[in-house]
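Shipment paperwork, digital attachment
Item: protein structure file
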Amino acid sequence: MDKKKLVLLVVALLVAVGTAFAARSLFMGASTPEAEAAVEPQGPKVLVAQRGLPTGTIITADSVNFQDWPEELVQDAYFIDGEADMTKLLGTVVRFPITAGEPVTQGALVAPGDRGFLAAALGPGMRAVTIPVSAKTGVAGFVFPGDRVDLVLTQTVAGGEGEPLKASETVLRNLRVLATDQSTESETVDGKTVVRAFRTVTIEVTPRIAEKVAVAQTIGALSLSLRSLADNQAQLERAIASGQVKVPQGASKEQEELLLRQAANRPLDGSTTYVTGGDVSRFQRKSKPISAEEKAARVVNRAVKAISAGAGMPTAAVRMGPVVRVTRGKNTTIETVGGN
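Attachment content:
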């Protein structure tokens, strides 16, 4: 190879290396301003939803938070950090749905005591009913608005003979507490929640469950059983595993979260559990005592079955025959048909 070609090759190589370095510097220089531009928006902090808040959601400390917001996008209806009092916002109810990351406006919340507060706290298709309680039946005051409880019915079933049957039954589960007495919020002093006695509890139920609660109050005494916060999640996982709760294909993440949240928070009616006096003490009944009429009918039925099976024949002095039940008012007697 002659010297001229060698020189040209070296020059071309140097030009290529220089071009590569120049391009690298150019790209690095262009990316630096973009990185500097990606800074947090400089402006006041506004209150935004930490997650999707459907209608009826009670505002808690973990459901909203203050976040930096561009000053030119701030509106008068926003809650501004330093101006809004969070202690007054906690316990308010969402009037219409708010998506995650969306600023919370003043018109989106209803405060306790405002007109329509309880109606806004109810979910779609739900009702509010009130039941009387005492310190003993109301978990000694350790039930607050937003908690979830089970409803226990205790009753005495009378019979014909012997001691009556005493029974306690969990008739309804996973009911949301809306208010205690006329208060829809918890009282806090020096950062600690005040436990106080109350005489009534207002709960959120379906229309059918509202009817059951009304009847249950006439049957016996109602008491509350406070549910653990972990129960709903465990119960939801069992429902998903069994196929009771199904998420439709193509549902977005927000739709899926809303569906699962509604399934976890719905009141449960059915599959009740019960305990009788015999389960607690050997000196109590375990089953319902039979009435005198039922006892007489059993004796007659046993006699008829014995005769039919040839176990014995009626004597001439004692004649047996078909029997009928004769009801006069509230009294029922067994009468033999035929004979002298």
